[in-house]
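Let's sit down with a protein and look at its sequence and fold side by side. Go ahead whenever you are ready, and we will take it from there.
>
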Amino acid sequence: MSPLLPAFPVTAAEARRAIPDLAARVETVDRLGEVRLLAGADASATRFDPERTVHAAVVTLGWPGLEKRDEAGAVRRGGLPYIPGLLGFREVPALTEAWAALPRKPDLVMMDGHGVAHPQGFGVACLLGLVLDVPTIGVAKSILVGEPAGPLPDEAGARVPLVWRGRQIGMALRTRRGANPLYISPGHRISPETALAWVERCLRGRRLPVPTLAAHEAAAALRRRELAGR
């Protein structure tokens, strides 16, 4: 665990109390070195699972070829229930277990979820970045808060700021013609501009960047294996 968060909150009230101090520590300026190893991180969970099971995966890929290097997963039960705005505290405990199992730690992580594009400016990518002290990017498939500043053209590479309460919190990015946009925001130790640039570099003609797509597939496969073994 991180000195900033010696233990994960076990109740929603504890998580809400922790957010203001943690959010104030999020860095949205570039503090990352040379990137040789990228990672995607994702967690798979069923909203109404009474056991509150989270299947988490982290997949590392070499840069610039994006060839898969390592994969690690973790299954955790009994955490926080599904509460919009607090998903980081539900998913990150399992993700940190998966991270610990990686033989080589990546230089940059793309998280399937929001960064600062969050009501408290503290999405799952922010919590993951703070706990691990690693640069992170939030790559979300839907809006949690805010709205695009204008129409988003239906062409690959089109982008428009995502704004909320008069300020920009992320970027809506159309990665493929006819595809729903992604919503990119800094998680920790990275600027909005650099976060967007890295996502674009990792698309390789797909709707989702290769790292988060790999992590999504790994988390889903872990869930299937674990359920089949019960």
The first helix runs from residue 12 to 24.
